[in-house]
Amino acid sequence: MHKKILVIMGIMVLVMNIAMAQTKPKKKERKGEFYFSWGYNKEWYTQSELHVDQRAIGNNYVMKGVRANDHPGWNEGIFDRAISIPQYNYRIGYFFNKKKGLAWEINFDHTKYILSDQSVHVVGQYNFRNVDTMMSFNHPGSFYYLNNGANFLLFNIVKRWHLYETKNEKVKIDFLGKGGIGPVIPHVENSFFGLKNDPHFQLGGWNIGVEGTIKGTFFNSFFLEYCNKIDYARYSGLKINSGTAHQGFGSYEMILNLGYTLPMGRKVEN
Question: Is residue 93 part of a domain?
Fold first, then answer.
């Protein structure tokens, strides 16, 4: 008899526990997540062809296989100058679906593209004559700078995968995959064999890029991210002395950002 009573009581306790678990209120959290980050970058560029069109003065040629380098700036000091002087970048984004890890993002890289001093293979028309020769492209007579920015702007779609999380949820490690397209906004400053332009900013073409990011978030607010990015930029209609120039080149970037996350939107059950 006592055994039957104990069995019945055990069943009742089990049923009550199941009922309580089912009626326990679910945790609610904000549906969306806004974030902003700022950091600095380093670039490597592919060789490219630079097309120069100055037909009014008898020039229409291609500089083949030109080499270029960046100018990080942050390696020369950060706190003793304006934070926008070195090669910087920012990201502004919003996770509109945290559960699926989907976000949109404004992705901007202030990158500097400087044609290295070199001998270049020039093919086409120069000074009203057909040429196919090597010419010296060296400062101060010749230079080509996108030094106040090659300036890649992308509108990205972002996907997040959770990799690790501590039991107290104070530290989270994620991987983010990003991809997008957008305009380039170069600052054009150059001198082609002694013919200088008036330096200026302009909309100068488009770029497309993909990015992989390891992101560490601390106390659900602050985060540090290390990014690797591949970008292709196509510049056209760049205003130079007596004409225009166009080119396309690829770049590989390494980026380090510090950012802040802010939950937003209505609360939903998690």
Answer: yes
Distances (CA, A) of 26 to 94, 169, 268, 269: 24, 17, 9, 6
CA 209/CA 234 separation, integer angstroms:
12
Peptide bond preceding 140 in cis form (omega within 30 of 0): yes
Max CA-CA distance within the chain?
Answer: 114
Strand partners of residue 57 = none
Residues in Cβ contact with 75 at an 8 Å cutoff, skipping those fewer than 6 apart: none
CA 229 to chain centre: 7
Is residue 60 within 8 A of residue 53, CB to CB? The reply is yes
What tens digit of pLDDT does each residue of 43-65 get? 999 999 999 999 999 999 999 99
DSSP bridge pairs for 108 = 90, 153
In the block, residue with structure tokens 């902003």: 36
CA proximity to 246, closest of 71, 107, 50, 105: 50
Q: pLDDT, tens digit, for every residue of 3-13?
A: 554 445 555 44
Q: With bands split at pLDDT 50, 70 and 90, how would you rate the model's confidence at 129? A: very high
CATH of the domain at 162: 2.40.160.20
Q: Is 78 helix (H, G, I), strand (E, B) or coil?
A: coil
In which residue are the tokens 């290295």 written?
Answer: 116
Burial 250-262 (b: 16+ CB within 10 A, else e): ebebebebebebe
Domain that holds residue 135: 32-269
